Amino acid sequence: MTTIKFQLETLSCPSCIKKIENTLNKQVGVQEAKVLFNSSKVKTEYDETIVTADQLEKLITKLGYPVLSKK
């Protein structure tokens, strides 16, 4: 398993958190996705043999939340 953190623009509401977490947690290969509201980060643990960081980033961006950085 690999862990990555995506830095997003400021999140403004609890529904944003649910939307992101639900989408990522449904993705095959994702073990757990957790949004850290105060820091606007998404911590994701995933199997890199099944899904890539770029694919996860695209899912977040598609929801309307630009990714500023990832590490």
Protein architecture, described:
The chain is of the alpha+beta class and 71 residues long. 32% of the residues lie in helices and 34% in strands. The chain is built from two helices and four strands, in the order E-H-E-E-H-E. It has helices spanning 14-26, 53-62; strands at residues 2-8, 30-36, 41-46, 67-70. The protein starts with a strand and ends with a strand.
Number of strands: 4
What is the residue-averaged pLDDT? 95
Residue runs with pLDDT of under 50 for 5 or more positions: none
Radius of gyration from CA coordinates: 11 Å
Count of individual helical segments = 2
Give the CA-based shape: globular
Q: What fraction strand?
A: 25-35%
Q: Strands of the largest sheet, in order across it?
A: 2-3-1-4
